[in-house]
Each structure stands twice: as structure tokens, then as C-alpha cells.
Amino acid sequence: MRTIEKEGLSLERIIFIGRTYEEYIDMFSLSLEELKGKRILDCPAGACSFTAKGTKQYLDITASDIAYYYGNDELYEKGLEDIKHTASALEKVKEHFVWNYFNDVTSLLKHRKAALNDYYQDRASNPKKYIPCTLPTLPFAEEEFDIVLSAHFLFTYADRLDKEFHFAAIDELLRVTNKELRIFPTADLDGNRYAHMDELIDRLTAKGYKAQEMKVGYEFQKNANTMLRIIKGHHE
To answer: Helices marked H in the chain — which ranges?
Structure first.
């Protein structure tokens, strides 16, 4: 696969894996009813099917990701490669995961491919819903959305993204929401709680936000079953 430099990031460095709409509902403790009529941002959205399947249910969802600087076909091929890589990698570390949401690796890969296909087809049909971005900066207006969802990026890569990046990215995600931000999970790739979580919550509280770690009904990676829910003060 050819390498194209976009925003200083080569395609080979992007892991393009997606979760399904159903996983999002469980990861973030959401329901279709509470999402109806809301302006929703998924960032970073990757190859997730949340926007695709949510749009079919008349939800107003925008997906944003650094990967979207690349074309749809390129990302689809990249996604297929990453799914194959995931299969071989998971077989070696299966004990680090909880196998109740997915029966086995084959079941997991089926869901990942379904998410990728849904993303690919929807981006082809609704390209304006897929907006490239480079956190910690977003190309959206202040309080443009009612709810912002951020999965498997912040906290997950605590070993590669420093505290300053995390805090700046969260500030930016909060800037573009009118009501709330939900981040899943609150653990890193080793299953450890984010080391600066208490400092972060104190910082958010001082700014007038209500921040709370909440257990959710989804656990695939062991100990990764909580989200951080941040509500703007005037919506408590």
C-alpha cells in the first residue's frame, strides 16, 4: 500500500478498526430514544458503523477522524488489512479479553468487518458526514453538538499521548458540545485506570463541569468497562 503523508501522519500508522452501532449503545449506556433529536459527534470515529446505522434510524450524527484525510477506498483496504492483523494478534492474547460479548475471535472479526462495510457504504453515500480532523483541534463551532462520544482513543493510548494532549483534547471536545461528552473506556491498553483521572476530574469540576466515572454494560478488554461522563454545568 502506498504511503501518503497527510497532516504529518502516514496511512500505515493509522489503525483503522471499527465498532458496531450496537457496541456504541452499550459502551456509552445510550438508547435510541435519548439520541433522537440530538446533534451527535463521534470523534475519533474510525471505521465504526455508529454514524452509518444511526443515520438509517434518522439520527443526526457526524463522524470525525484523522483517517478521513484519506480516501474511502484506501481506508477500506487498510481496514481489511488491520482486521487480518487483529485476528492473528488476538489469538496470542485471548486471555486478556472477556469472551461474552463475542463468542470467539471469528465472531469478533465478523462484527469488525460488518462495521467496516457499513462505514464504507455510508461514507460513499454521505461523504459530508465524515469530517477529517487532527485533535486537539476540531473544525466545528462552539457548542455545535448536543452530545460528543469518544471511544478507544483518549486514555486507551495513555502511554503514547501525554497528559497535556489528553487535557487539551478533552477541552476541545467539550468546546464543541452544548450538553455532554462521554469517553470510553477509562482504562489503557493494559487495563489500568488512567493515571491522571483524579487530577482530570478535579480540573473539570473546577471549571464547572460535572465529571463522573460510570460502569457500563460492555466489557471486551478486561477492566475496560467504565466511561467518563462529563456534563456541562447548566445541564446538571
So the answer is: 21-27, 32-35, 50-56, 72-92, 105-125, 163-175, 197-206
